[in-house]
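Render this sequence as a predicted structure.
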Amino acid sequence: MKATSEDAEPIDRDAPGSVDAVIKAYLRDEMFTEHLAKATQDMRAAILKRFQNTTTPNGRRFGDNQIATLQAKEGRERLADELAKQSTPAAQKNSQSRADDAGA
């Protein structure tokens, strides 16, 4: 799937190494589809889709970026923000703990 902007080159949302491609592969992986409860799959898919569509400071979608070019701290902060939006206090605490561990 290609996306375009009036001022930009077409964006290949399935480009190898892009955040979109990595998330797409994860959501299709057997460990995700066969070994997680449906509720967990739905929750994670929603979080990752929000992360993909979050705008970077330069105005691009995170999903359009190449994994190799992302600043680790920037990605962790944005993903932690999305995880923190989960509805249960226990899930929020668990998400923050994971984000803190990733930053260590």
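Summary. The mean pLDDT is 77. The CA atoms of residues 2 and 96 lie 34 Å apart.
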